[in-house]
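Hello Y.,

Per our agreement to keep a running log of every chain we model this quarter, I'm adding this entry. I've kept the format consistent with earlier entries: sequence first, then predicted structure.
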Amino acid sequence: MKTFRASIDVMPHDNLLDPQGKAVSGSMQNLGLPEITGVRIGKHITLHVEAADKKTAEAKVDEACRKLLANQVMERFSFVVDELA
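Predicted structure for the entry above:
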């Protein structure tokens, strides 16, 4: 078995309201940063997975995202899997 590290990003769908992002985006003006707009806030998750190969590790990470880490009704996810040395 090999150990892989997955870096996962979970973000709200573009067509859904992001109240946290909207609040932060609105605060940028008060901080003297009016050129920063359109803030979207999500989650970044890292995890290790034991698998025979990268393809199997990616399948396990995809399953974890679909079953637990992302609410697919409201969020989208993407990930990168790299083998640890």
